Amino acid sequence: MFFKQFYDNNLSQASYLIGCQRTGEAMIIDPIRDLTKYMEVADEEGFTITQAAETHIHADFASGIRDVAEKLNASIYVSGEGDDDLNYKNMPQQTHFVRHQDTIYVGNIKLEVLHTPGHTPESISFLLTDEGVGSNIPMGLFSGDFIFVGDIGRPDLLEKAVQMKGSTEVGAKQMYQSVNSVKDLPDYIQIWPGHGAGSPCGKALGAVPISTLGYEKINNWAFNVTEEATFIETLTSNQPAPPHHFAQMKQINQFGMNMYQPYNVYPSLNNERIAFDLRSKEAFHGGHAQGTINIPYNHNFINQIGWYLDYNKDIDLIGDKATVEEAVHTLQLIGFENVAGYRLPQTTIMTSSIHSADMTGKETNVLDVRNNEEWNQGHLEQAVNIPHGKLLNESIPFDKNDKIYVHCQSGVRSSIAIGILEYRGFTNIVNVSEGYKDFPLALK
Amino acid sequence: MFFKQFYDNNLSQASYLIGCQRTGEAMIIDPIRDLTKYMEVADEEGFTITQAAETHIHADFASGIRDVAEKLNASIYVSGEGDDDLNYKNMPQQTHFVRHQDTIYVGNIKLEVLHTPGHTPESISFLLTDEGVGSNIPMGLFSGDFIFVGDIGRPDLLEKAVQMKGSTEVGAKQMYQSVNSVKDLPDYIQIWPGHGAGSPCGKALGAVPISTLGYEKINNWAFNVTEEATFIETLTSNQPAPPHHFAQMKQINQFGMNMYQPYNVYPSLNNERIAFDLRSKEAFHGGHAQGTINIPYNHNFINQIGWYLDYNKDIDLIGDKATVEEAVHTLQLIGFENVAGYRLPQTTIMTSSIHSADMTGKETNVLDVRNNEEWNQGHLEQAVNIPHGKLLNESIPFDKNDKIYVHCQSGVRSSIAIGILEYRGFTNIVNVSEGYKDFPLALK
Amino acid sequence: MFFKQFYDNNLSQASYLIGCQRTGEAMIIDPIRDLTKYMEVADEEGFTITQAAETHIHADFASGIRDVAEKLNASIYVSGEGDDDLNYKNMPQQTHFVRHQDTIYVGNIKLEVLHTPGHTPESISFLLTDEGVGSNIPMGLFSGDFIFVGDIGRPDLLEKAVQMKGSTEVGAKQMYQSVNSVKDLPDYIQIWPGHGAGSPCGKALGAVPISTLGYEKINNWAFNVTEEATFIETLTSNQPAPPHHFAQMKQINQFGMNMYQPYNVYPSLNNERIAFDLRSKEAFHGGHAQGTINIPYNHNFINQIGWYLDYNKDIDLIGDKATVEEAVHTLQLIGFENVAGYRLPQTTIMTSSIHSADMTGKETNVLDVRNNEEWNQGHLEQAVNIPHGKLLNESIPFDKNDKIYVHCQSGVRSSIAIGILEYRGFTNIVNVSEGYKDFPLALK
Amino acid sequence: MFFKQFYDNNLSQASYLIGCQRTGEAMIIDPIRDLTKYMEVADEEGFTITQAAETHIHADFASGIRDVAEKLNASIYVSGEGDDDLNYKNMPQQTHFVRHQDTIYVGNIKLEVLHTPGHTPESISFLLTDEGVGSNIPMGLFSGDFIFVGDIGRPDLLEKAVQMKGSTEVGAKQMYQSVNSVKDLPDYIQIWPGHGAGSPCGKALGAVPISTLGYEKINNWAFNVTEEATFIETLTSNQPAPPHHFAQMKQINQFGMNMYQPYNVYPSLNNERIAFDLRSKEAFHGGHAQGTINIPYNHNFINQIGWYLDYNKDIDLIGDKATVEEAVHTLQLIGFENVAGYRLPQTTIMTSSIHSADMTGKETNVLDVRNNEEWNQGHLEQAVNIPHGKLLNESIPFDKNDKIYVHCQSGVRSSIAIGILEYRGFTNIVNVSEGYKDFPLALK
Question: Looking at the predicted complex, does its ipTM rise above 0.90?
Answer without folding.
Answer: yes
